[in-house]
Design brief:
Number of strands: 12
Helix content: 40-55%
Number of domains: 3
Strand content: 15-25%
CATH architecture of the largest domain: 2-Layer Sandwich
CATH topology of the largest domain: Transcription Regulator spoIIAA
Radius of gyration: 21 Å
Strand order of the largest sheet: 1-2-3-4-6-5
Structural class: alpha/beta
Largest sheet: 6 strands, mixed
Shape: globular
């Protein structure tokens, strides 16, 4: 279950824990007031620590903290301080994401108008490697490009998605996948209930994925994982094309793209270029 700092009272957390929910993911994002405001987050630094304490007191023994770094207005000193303070809490899992710019968002418009300047790629890459170093030195191994865990505490929920396994969709806005098709339910709670109660489907969108689409997803997600791309999952009809792409990519990325046994994976340095390498490998 996900919880925002300041919006998860102790008694409510106890109730959820009593229902069998055993993992809590906290949207910390930052401990710097100005950066929280920039991210349009309404919680304070103190509420982060208060909610974390509530979660422990409620009996949660598996807690993740979400953090964002390489943001406009964020210095390395601020990020390192925040990261170390979260490490002092000793959560079982930490997700540390770099801020990405996506079309259609308010941030994208600010950048387009010159009101906000995003950090340079060299800075983001440097921070990425230093962040991995700090987390690793504190006992958190990176099993995915932005996710770190103590031994045995990797998020099975997320791994399920990244390995492109099927999942069901319950509730408004939920998405499902059966191995070939993806679908999403209506966003409105009232509309969802009306559809269910009338015996109609709550699905509002559906897309069918080709084998080529799924293979490209296997490549893209696989590069993000520490375990790499499982070559045994590449369909036979695409093996020749993939092997041709792989041979070319290995010449171009010889120092960071590793082929071993039945998998292809990136070194930590190579993960800085995940998206670019992925394009070179995709069908």
């Amino acid at each position: 279950m996900e919880a925002n700092p300041g919006e998860a009272p102790l008694e409510r957390l106890k109730d959820f824990r009593s229902l069998g929910i055993n993992r809590l993911s906290m949207g910390v994002q930052s401990l710097e007031p100005d950066l929280l405001k920039f991210l349009t987050r309404i919680h304070s630094q103190n509420q982060v620590f208060e909610t974390y304490e509530h979660a422990r007191n409620a009996g949660f023994e598996n807690i993740n903290c979400d953090l964002i770094y390489s943001m406009p207005g964020q210095s390395w000193e601020i990020w390192e301080r925040d990261l170390l303070r979260v490490l002092d809490l000793k959560p079982e899992h930490i997700s540390a994401y770099t801020l990405t710019l996506e079309k259609g968002t308010e941030l994208y418009q600010f950048v387009k108008k010159g009101q906000v300047t995003m950090p340079e790629e060299d800075q983001t890459g440097g921070w990425f490697l230093k962040t991995h170093g700090i987390l690793n030195s504190h006992g958190y191994s990176a099993y995915e490009i932005s996710n770190f865990a103590r031994p045995g505490m990797e998020c099975r929920h997320n791994l399920h998605y990244w390995r492109i396994h099927p999942y069901l969709a319950f509730g408004p806005s939920a998405h499902g996948f059966d191995g070939s098709n993806r679908w999403g339910n209506v966003r409105s709670l009232d509309q969802y209930l009306t559809q269910i109660e009338s015996g109609n489907t709550p699905i509002s969108m559906k897309e069918s994925l080709t084998q080529k689409n799924l293979t490209n997803e296997l490549i893209g997600f696989g590069l993000r994982l520490n375990e790499g791309i499982d070559l045994a999952q590449i369909p036979e009809k695409y093996l020749n094309q993939f092997n041709t792409n792989l041979e070319s990519a290995r010449e171009k990325w010889s120092d960071v793209l590793i082929l071993r046994d039945s998998s292809v994976y990136l070194t930590k340095k190579g993960m800085v270029y995940t998206d670019t390498v992925g394009v070179d490998l995709m069908l």
